[in-house]
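thought: user wants a sequence for this fold. calling inverse folding tool.
action: design(structure=
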């Protein structure tokens, strides 16, 4: 039987991973990517796997949800995680990458594979045969309409936002200090401290700063994804909301704080009232991302308000924050934990389109959808992964959650089946989850590959 060529639609993290796994299984694949002929509202380059929000894949430690998913993907031969490891930049306990080199390397790697054909064209209808749909949360209107006709359902929607990026040389290092929380790991974050007066002034300006009008559909029908709220939305929720979120000062004690930033005349060591953290974007440390500062403020307002932050008075922004609509399907009604559509098993989905949240989850979905697409082409049954792994738990959740209240889900230990015994200590419990998951992944690989 001649193996049929598989179509992968979308060159983001999920589509890139899916195409690679299909080709590595010995099956020809056409990877469709509409850029550079047509750009979404969030993309800026034509490279595959462009990271449009943060450059961080989340915590590295395997007793953290994201870190466990990283390690599962390493065991499974993920090309996305392999390249993330290769292009990692200092970020404390997080896996962050030089986003330019990361996406360029993936583009070149896939382009060189003899079984991958990269077509820079926009598909407006879902083709026949075996297809992986990985068009992400910014699917083009025409293809979205075709998918809507197939499913008979409207999309669910929420708004997502990206943080500004600052030139490192423009940061005042007499005020900003390098540190990690509780001095754990390398001091990889730049921290801009605020005293109470500075914080309250900043909070007031942020609440009233002018936002960009959301024109693509009525604002009242939009939902914010709670893990990626615009900073101004957090400010409007209360005076201390930011201080218990991205601006929390806990565990950050600078060696000295200049008087203008809250210290006394001798250079006090008192803990700041609030702290804005910056994370390194590139290997050279020339670019820094404002952690947790996703925003929909007008660009002029961003400069005005964010330059109120001590240490950022003369900040030069290479990218200002942007906000865009994310859309996702109601996966519990439509999908199996193998990432096949119930009504068309030869159509598979992956990434934010199906309601997973985060870069690593997108790569994980691409891995399973691509692997199963290749298996179907080879006359084999599709695989599912045990819900005692982070991958399996995530895909079981999106295929079995309540359709009425379905929202995108990031990797987390709350979706795991319980252990056989009660363990009160959280770190010990997470360690046990990790050990169980990695043992299952190793067994899964042994059984199937």
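)
observation: tool returned 449 residues.
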């Amino acid at each position: 039987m001649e193996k049929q060529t598989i179509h992968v639609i979308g060159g983001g993290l999920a589509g890139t991973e899916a195409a690679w796994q299909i080709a590595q299984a010995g099956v020809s694949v056409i990877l469709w990517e509409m850029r550079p002929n047509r750009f979404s509202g969030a993309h800026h380059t034509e490279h595959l796997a462009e990271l449009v929000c943060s450059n961080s894949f989340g915590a590295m430690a395997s007793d953290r949800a994201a870190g466990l998913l990283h390690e599962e993907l390493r065991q499974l031969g993920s090309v996305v995680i392999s390249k993330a490891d290769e292009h990692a930049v200092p970020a404390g306990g997080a896996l962050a990458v030089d986003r330019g080199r990361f996406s360029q390397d993936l583009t070149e790697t896939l382009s060189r594979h003899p079984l991958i054909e990269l077509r820079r064209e926009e598909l407006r209808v879902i083709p026949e045969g075996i297809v992986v749909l990985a068009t992400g949360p910014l699917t083009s209107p025409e293809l979205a309409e075709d998918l809507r006709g197939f499913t008979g359902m409207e999309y669910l929607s929420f708004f997502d936002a990206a943080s500004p990026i600052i030139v490192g040389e423009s940061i005042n290092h007499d005020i900003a200090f390098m540190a990690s929380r509780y001095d754990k790991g390398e001091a990889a974050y730049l921290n801009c401290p605020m005293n109470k007066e500075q914080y309250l002034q900043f909070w007031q300006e942020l609440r009233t700063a002018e936002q960009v009008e959301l024109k693509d559909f009525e604002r009242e029908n939009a939902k914010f994804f709670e893990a990626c709220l615009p900073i101004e939305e957090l400010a409007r929720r209360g005076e201390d909301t930011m201080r218990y979120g991205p601006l929390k000062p806990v565990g950050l004690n600078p060696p000295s704080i200049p008087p203008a930033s809250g210290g006394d005349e001798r250079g006090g060591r008192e803990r700041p009232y609030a702290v804005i953290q910056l994370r390194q974007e590139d290997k050279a440390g020339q670019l820094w991302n404002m952690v947790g500062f996703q925003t929909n403020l007008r660009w002029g307002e961003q400069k005005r308000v964010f330059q109120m932050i001590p240490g950022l008075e003369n900040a030069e922004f290479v990218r200002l924050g942007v906000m865009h609509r994310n859309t996702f399907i109601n996966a519990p009604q439509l999908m199996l934990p193998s990432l096949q559509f119930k009504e068309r098993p030869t159509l598979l989905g992956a990434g934010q389109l199906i309601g997973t949240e985060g870069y690593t989850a997108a790569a994980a979905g691409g891995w399973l959808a691509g692997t199963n697409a290749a298996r179907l082409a080879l006359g084999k049954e599709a695989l599912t992964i045990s819900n005692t792994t982070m991958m399996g738990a995530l895909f079981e959740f999106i295929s079995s959650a309540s359709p009425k209240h379905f929202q995108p889900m990031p990797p987390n230990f709350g979706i795991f089946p319980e252990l056989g015994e009660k363990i009160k200590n959280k770190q010990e419990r997470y360690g046990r989850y990790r050990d169980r998951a990695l043992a299952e992944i190793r067994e899964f690989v042994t059984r199937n590959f």
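thought: summarizing for user.
answer: Here is the designed sequence. The chain has a mean pLDDT of 88.
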